[in-house]
Amino acid sequence: MKIAILSQEASLYSTQRLKEAGEARGHDLEVINYLRCYMNITAHKPMVMYQGKPLADLDAIIPRIAASKTFYGTAVVRQFQLMGVFSANDSQAISRSRDKLRCLQILSREGIGLPITGFAHSIQDIDGLIDIVGSTPLVIKVLEGTQGIGVMLAETQQAAKSAIEAFRGLNANILVQEFIKEAEGVDIRCFAIGDKVVASMKRQGAPGEFRSNLHRGGTAEKIKLTPEERITAVRATKAMGLRVAGVDLLRSHHGPVVMEVNSSPGLEGIEKATGVDVAGKIIEFLEKNAALGKTRDRL
């Protein structure tokens, strides 16, 4: 197969591993900077151009779209879909997962376990918002944040009110969530492909840090999921319409709760923690599904 990896940086671990895994299985892999793609949007022959030449005869693409470049990146993915190219994740599913509020609302509709979450616009409603979520401490998240940036823990109600007022004063949209104390600074990353979880790891926050992101000094190790956790991760992936996803869970007293569904999950942490060839499993998924899926996905 001829496969394009849509990535800004060919040197990134995830990009390199996908290219290596595809070439090891006999496929032609090319890394394409999607920000340098430009499009001919026409009814009869839609095209994607790159370095002055049309990107033709592709069998599949693997989008690795940065959160800050979602708008343009998903436009490029949509254009490939118009051309009948199979995408590891379609554009609509990527957009849904990147909107944290919309993601939680979709998961809620499907009855998937979530932390109690509040959302409001006016600072006049802060007291009511905090009352909905419950007792402190509370987690406050900026909707546009990634890798733990824009996430804070408010230990008291007054601290929560001050933080919310500050964020809203900057016109930042925020979510307020209950703090799952029993998780003890640990979350679980489930890597789902299709209808299976292929690898899972637990991430422990650095000492004194409630966020477990590896980018913030957290550590990771392989973990065995419970059947309920495995089912929850697959349901969350399907609810978002994703084919490849990283689903972040917390273990709460009332079962697993989903914190986030990531459409471009990194491979380095989970491959090193588990020893699983996740990149190879993504390529294998494309082999099984690209020929069958060369139809126009939802735009």
UniProtKB/TrEMBL annotation:
Which terms does the record give in the GO molecular function aspect? Answer: ATP binding; metal ion binding; ribosomal S6-glutamic acid ligase activity
Question: For binding Mn(2+) 1, which residues are annotated in this chain's numbering?
Answer: 248, 260
One GO cellular component assignment for this chain's record is:
cytoplasm
Keywords per UniProt: ATP-binding, Ligase, Magnesium, Manganese, Metal-binding, Nucleotide-binding, Protein biosynthesis, Ribonucleoprotein, Ribosomal protein
**Family matches, as Pfam families:** RimK, Rimk_N
Give the top-level enzyme category. Answer: ligase
The entry marks the following residues as binding ATP, namely: 141, 178-179, 187, 211-213
InterPro entries with a match to the protein in the record:
ATP-grasp (IPR011761), ATP-grasp_RimK-type (IPR013651), ATP_grasp_subdomain_1 (IPR013815), RimK (IPR023533), Rimk_N (IPR041107), Rp_bS6_RimK/Lys_biosynth_LsyX (IPR004666)
Q: Which residues bind Mg(2+) 1?
A: 248, 260
- Tell me where in this chain the ATP-grasp domain is found: 104-287
Query: What positions does the entry give for Mg(2+) 2 binding?
Result: 260, 262
Q: What is its EC number?
A: 6.3.2.-
What does this protein's record comment on cofactor binding? Binds 2 magnesium or manganese ions per subunit.
Q: Which cofactors does the annotated protein need, by name?
A: Mg(2+); Mn(2+)
Q: Name one GO biological process term.
A: translation
Binding positions for Mn(2+) 2? 260, 262
Q: Which family does it belong to?
A: In the C-terminal section; belongs to the RimK family. Belongs to the RimK family.
Q: What is this protein called?
A: Probable alpha-L-glutamate ligase
Give the organism the record lists.
Limnofasciculus baicalensis BBK-W-15
